[in-house]
Amino acid sequence: MFRSVAFDPQLPLAVIGALAAIAVLVLGLALWRGLAGWWLRALAALVLLAALAGPSLRQEDRARVPNIALVVVDDSASNRLAARPEQITQAIEGIEARLDRLGQSAPLEVRTIHVADAGAEGTLLLGALGEAVAELPADRIAGAILVTDGQIHDPEALKSFPAPVQVLLTGRAADWDRRVVIETAPAFAIVDEPVSLSLRIEDLGAAPAAGGTAALFIALDGAEPLRFDVPLNQSVTLPVTLKRGGMNVLQISTPEVPGELTDRNNSQIVSVNGVRDRLRVLLVSGEPYPGERTWRNLLKSDSAVDLVHFTILRPPDKQDFVPVFELSLIAFPTQELFMEKVDEFDLIIFDRYKRRGILPNAYFENIARYVRDGGALLIASGADFAGAESLYRSPLREVLPVEPTGRVIEEGFTPRVSALGERHPVTAGLEEHAPRPAAPDGTPGWGRWFRAVEVTVPNGETVMSGPDDTPLLVLEREGEGRIAVMNSDEAWLWSRGFEGGGPQLELLRRLAHWLMKEPELEEEVLLGSGDEGAVVVSRRTLADTIPPVVATSPSGARSEVAMTEIAPGRWEGRIPDAENGAWRLENGDKLAVAVVGPPAPAEFRDPVSTGAVLAPLAESTRGGVKRLEDGVPDIRLVREDRVANGRGWIGLADREAYQLRDIRQVELAPGWLMLILSAGLVFGAWRIEGR
Q1: In the structure, how many helices (H) and strands (E) does the chain have?
Q2: Segment (H or E) for 625
Q3: Do residues 475 and 513 touch, judged by C-beta distance below 8 A?
Q4: What angle, rounded to 10 degrees, do the helices at 504-515 and 290-300 form?
Q5: Which terminus of the chain has fewer CB atoms gathered within 10 Å of its CB, N or C?
Q6: What value does the mean pLDDT take over residues 210-239?
Q7: What is the structure's pLDDT at 91?
Q8: Are 61 and 661 in contact (CB under 8 A)?
Q9: Residue 326 pLDDT exceeds 70
Q10: pLDDT tens digit sequence for 71-118
Q11: Is the pLDDT of residue 388 over 90?
Q12: Rounded Cα gap, residues 345 and 283, in angstroms
C-alpha cells in the first residue's frame, strides 16, 4: 500500500494565489493597528485557503513487477576463436547462477539474446539489443550484460540505454593476430604493363615482436605464387603484371605464425580487369575488291584498334607505261613493317593476297617466326590461294594448318557450322544471328557464297564447312601464336544483304578477337564466380566429356563438383552454401579461382578482443568493461542514480517498477467543516478584540 496527499483545487491556482496575497495584506493591516486577534484571523485565512486547495488522502494498492535483465551473447565467428567458446559457457553459467541468487531478494526476469554474425556486415550486436529493448517497458529494464569479444560493427545503432550496460570481454589481454591489409588496388590494369598494389602486413594486439619482416605471396589466377619479403606494419608498393585480358584474380597471403588467433585474415583477394592498351592490326589487301571495305569497316569500328591498312594497287608486273614520277601512290614500307616492326602488331591479316615479288621469302620467314612467338595471322584467301602464287608456296607453309589441292569450287553454297564449330566459341550459336530461321533440312538461314578454295587439313580445327563439306574456316595454334584461314573471299556478300545476308560482322569480330586471345573466346577455359553464397563453376571445352571439377575450400577441404552440359561445349556446376573466401578450382590442367563473399570477412578483420568500441556506451550508463579471464564478476542491485560498477562486481539498477491495482482517495477538508472552523476562528478574534 502507498499513501500520499493529493490536491484538487476548487479554483484556478492564480485565483487562490491572489486571495492568499489579499489575506497577507489584511493580516499586515491588523498587525499595524495592533489588533489582538490577528493570529486567529490568520488561522481562519489558512483554513479557507486549505479548503480551496482541496486536499485529500490518496491510497494506492501496488503490486511489484520484476526488473528485466538482458543477457546478450555474441555467437559470431570471431567469438569462437581459441578458448572463447569455453569462456562463454562458463560466463553464462556464472551469470545465470548470480542472477538466480539476486532474484531471491528482488523479483528479476532474465532474457537471453544470442547474436550471430551477419555475413559481410559483421556482428550487429547493438542493433539486436536495440530491437529487444524496443519491445520492453523502459521503466522495468535493470540493465544489459554483454558477453562478447568487443568486435562489433554497429556502434552507432544504440546511442543510449535506460539502464547500466555491462561488458564482459572474452579472449585474453595477451591475444594478438597478423593480417594483410590492401590499401589501394586498381580496378583496371593494362595487360603486360606493371601496375602498383599498395598493402601492408599488420600485427594487432600484444604481438611478440614489434618489427622485422614477413613473407608475402601473390598468386595470379591460382598459378604459382611470387614471394616478397616485406617489413611488418609498414605500407609497401609492389608491381604486378597481368598477362591476359579479362578478370584476373590476385590472391595475396602471408603464412600463419604460431600464436596468432586465426589465419582467416592472412589472405586477401583482389580482382583486376585486364585491358589491352591498343590493339595494332596490319591489314594487307592484295587488290581492291568489295570485301576489302568490309574488313576495314569492322576494324575501324573498334576504337581500341589501331589499323594500318595497305592495298597493293600497282604490282610490279603491271605494264601501263605510266611514268613513275606521275604516280601519287605511297611506297609500301615492307622492310620497316615486316622485318623491323612486325612484333608490334597484335594481328596481321592477308586479304586476297598473292605472291607478286613484293615481299621476299625472308619477310615470310619473319612472319612465321612472329606467329610462333605469340603473334596472330589471318588469311582470307581468294582463288589465287590455289595457284602457283599462293601464300602456301612461301615459308608460311610451315605454320599454315591447310594445304590447297589446286581446285577452286565456283558454285553456290550455304556455309555451315561444323560439329566441332558448334562447340567452338568463334562459331557456337552463330545461327542465332541469322536473318531468318533455318530450313527444315538444317540449312542455316543466311545467304549463299559462290567461291571456295578446296583444301585439306593436316592439322587444325575446321569450325565451318563449305560445298561438299570441304573446310571453309580452319583455326590452329602454332607455338604461342594463332592462325585462322578463311578459304573463301566472299564473306562480304553477307554484309551486302545478298539473299538476306548473314552474321558476317559477328563472325569476323569473334574471329579477330579469338586470334588476339581475348578471354571470352577461349575454347578451353575454366571459370568460377560467387553468386549469393554459392560457387558457380563454368567449363568451356571442345571435348565431349570432362572429368569432375575438384574444388578446394578456403579452409582446405576438397570436394568434387558435378558438372552438367548446358550447351554444346559448355558445362556448369554449382556449390551451394559455399564457405566465404577464395575457392581453388581444378579441372585437368585448368585452374581457376572463385571468390565467395569477402575473402576476409568483417569478423576476422580484427579478431583481437577489445573494450574500446563498447566502452563509451558502458560508461555513459554507469556500467563498465571487464575481462572474463579475471573471472565472472559478482552481480548486485543498485539504485538508479548510483554507479553500477566496482572491483570484482557489476550492478543492475533496481527500477522499483510496480503495477497499480486500486486507488482510494479520502477528502481531508470537507467544505462545510472548513467553513464552520473558519467562522469560529473569526468569531473568536472578534470576541478578543471586543473586550
Answers
A1: 11, 37
A2: strand 625-627
A3: no
A4: 60
A5: C
A6: 86
A7: 93
A8: yes
A9: no
A10: 999 999 888 888 899 999 999 999 999 999 888 877 888 999 999 887
A11: no
A12: 10
> Please, are residues 354 and 389 in contact by the beta-carbon 8 Å criterion?
yes
Q: Residue 301: is its pLDDT beyond 90?
A: no
C-alpha cell at 305: 584498334
What is 279-515's CATH topology?
Rossmann fold (3.40.50)
Measured CA to CA, the distance from residue 434 to residue 497 in angstroms comes to 11
Reading the block at residue 287, the C-alpha cell is 587488290
User: CA 179, CA 202: separation in Å to the nearest integer?
Assistant: 5
Q: Which residue has the cell 566496482?
A: 646
The class of domain 176-276 in CATH terms is mainly beta
Residue 600 pLDDT: 61
**Percent of the chain residues topping a pLDDT of 90:** 32
Residues 6+ apart with CB under 8 A from 623: 143, 164, 165, 166, 167, 617, 644, 645, 650
Instruction: Collect all residues with Cβ–Cβ distance below 8 Å to 133 and sequence separation of at least 6.
Output: 70, 141, 161, 162
582 with 269: CB under 8 angstroms?
A: yes
Buried b (16+ CB within 10 A) or exposed e, 633-667: bebbbbeeeeebbeeebbbbbbbebeeeeeeeeee
Q: What is the dihedral of CA 147, 151, 152, 158, to 10 degrees?
A: 70
Whether the predicted pLDDT of 209 surpasses 80 = no
Give the amino acid at 190. Answer: I
Report yes or no: 651 and 642 within 8 Å, Cβ to Cβ: yes
Helices 38-53 and 13-33 pack at an angle, to 10 degrees, of: 180
Cα 634 from Cα 651, distance rounded (Å): 8
Within 10 Å of residue 66's Cβ, how many Cβ atoms? 15
- For the cut 70, the answer to whether the pLDDT of residue 329 exceeds it is no
What one-letter code names the amino acid at 176?
A: W
| β-pair partners for 660 | 62
Give the H/E segment covering residue 664: strand 658-667
Task: Give SS3 for 456.
Answer: strand
Q: Which residue has the higher pLDDT, 509 or 377?
A: 377
Q: Which residues contact 308 (CB under 8 A, 6 or more apart)?
A: 280, 281, 282, 283, 337, 345
The pTM score is 0.66
- Determine the 3-state secondary structure of 149 from DSSP: coil
Interatomic CA distance for residues 377 and 319, integer angstroms: 32
**What are the strands, taking DSSP E only, across 187-304?**
188-190, 194-205, 213-220, 226-231, 236-241, 246-253, 267-275, 279-285
CA distance 561 to 153: 35
- CA-to-CA separations, 139 to 132, 207, 399, 655, in angstroms, rounded: 14, 45, 88, 6
| CA dist., res. 170 & res. 168, Å (int) | 7
Q: Where are the chain's structural domains?
A: 2-61+662-690, 66-174+609-656, 176-276, 279-515, 525-596
- What CATH number labels 66-174+609-656? 3.40.50
Do the domains 525-596 and 176-276 match in fold? yes
Q: For the structural domain made of 525-596, what CATH number should be given?
A: 2.60.40.2320
